[in-house]
Amino acid sequence: MMRFKIFVCSLVLPLCAAAADVFPVPQFGYAIDFPEGFSLDDGSDDLSLLLFRHTMLPVEVMTCVYPADAYPSAAAALGGTFARLGATGDVKAVRWRNQRCALSPMTVRNAALDGSHEGWSCAVPLPDKKGLLTVFAYAPASSAAKCEPFLRSVLDSVMTDAGSLREAGIVTASEFPGGKRQKLTLTIAGKNITVRTGSDDVAAAQSVIDREWAVFLPFATTDYAIEAWQRFYRLIARDSRGRTKEAAFAIQNALAKSARQSDPDDPDAAIAQMLLTWTQGFPYARASDTPDKADFASIPSVLSGAPSDCDSRSLLVAVLLKNMDIDACLFVSAAYSHAVLGVALPGKQGQVIAAGGTDYLVGETTASGTTLGMMDATMQDRAQWISVLFYD
After folding, report:
1. Tens digit of pLDDT for each residue in 275-315?
2. Which H or E element spans position 341?
């Protein structure tokens, strides 16, 4: 068994180098951001068929890529594979990435699997007619309920093109298709800015948080803890970028003139500071004080004015900036029980933390009056900070 790492140089999708358990298949143009602990167990020489097993949980994942013309639809591909596996399920056609895809729970009664298994499956047409991707995540029936968040997380972390790096996964998108668009007025740097959000964005984002927290918890006291923590935030950021892209566009347009006046040489720095100052005035509250629930307020709820803490605010600013094509990230620290924003602004002076070969100016979202590059003197040990980089 081999533990897999990301191969950035050969991947068609521009994935972040910090994502250690992202498994890319360049010839087919897809990747999966697996939860920590998976190993590639077997597969065909051309990688059209792959089998992954988890090292801690009784979970397996199988991927199969069919030729684009092998089935008339994604739903047919899923149904055809069910027949081969001896599986049953309620296959439903769903829309994801503007394509007709398929999603289904599944039950497998196959002697080769040593008993009944349950799980989830999806089928997705790959871009440029590279094939039909089917993904099956399953566990023994006796463990399936406990592993349910894990199984759904695997499917939701499938990425098939550059746009899917910045949008909800197929599971979340099918359950929360967006709802009605609603207007929200934000006041940033003295300007009233009207943005639009989806009526089910808060519920959808919270579902991702709850699921991914359940995925993270088994790793909290293991050697995978740091990578699992990074993935938790990374998947939330991916989902949140799609939900905030309209807001980011409206905010950037509204602040562009003021930013150019404030800092003609680097208006991006001015916008980043405006957003930082804006979040410093948010109402403060912890989302949870019990370990079974994530202490993290969803990004759409924070955008709408809900009370928040340092990591939610920092991630909100980071995803807005990323949507504006301004490089940003998140830094979290267990030792300091804190999180800060990171913004790449070459030439600007101040406290920085290096991540992925880039220096990021830090930003304190809960300390009123601080500017980018200012950092609490008691929190400057860089070894205590964990970087969370996002898909590019």
Report:
1. 999 999 999 887 767 777 888 999 999 999 999 999 999 99
2. strand 338-343
